[in-house]
Design goal:
The protein has 142 residues and is mainly α. 55% of the residues lie in helices and 0% in strands. 23% of the residues are buried.
Length: 142
Amino acid sequence: MTNEIQPVLPATPEARRPVPPAPIHPLAALVTIVLDNVFGWIEIVDPLAILLTSFLVGGIGFVTTLFVQRYLAKDEWGVSAAKGLVMGVIAGVPFQVTGTAVGAALLGWAGASKWIKLPPPRPEPELPAGEIVEAEVKDVDQ
């Protein structure tokens, strides 16, 4: 084993993002929209099935978001469960508007953070060694 210092490789400047990444994976947001609309017709046809349908859709939304966040977004189990619970409740609300609106907003947020980029910062030009001037710092306590 040697004690050699490895050279520092220059980093390539990456584009900065003015929009932070969405808290939910886009697939989880899409699943919320789909669940909200697929099971919405049951609520219209049979109003007595609203309670059963709401729990079923909420459970499916929870499980789907839990696994999408855990395995695709690489979140921890606790964070994935919290996000799954929120998205499950949103999908399980017995109105089609809620899950669709929230899912569409999250999909838009994910798209904006992915495609809207600022140009990479320009590196500061280095001054030639002859232009660097040493200056003394004077202590002014008067």
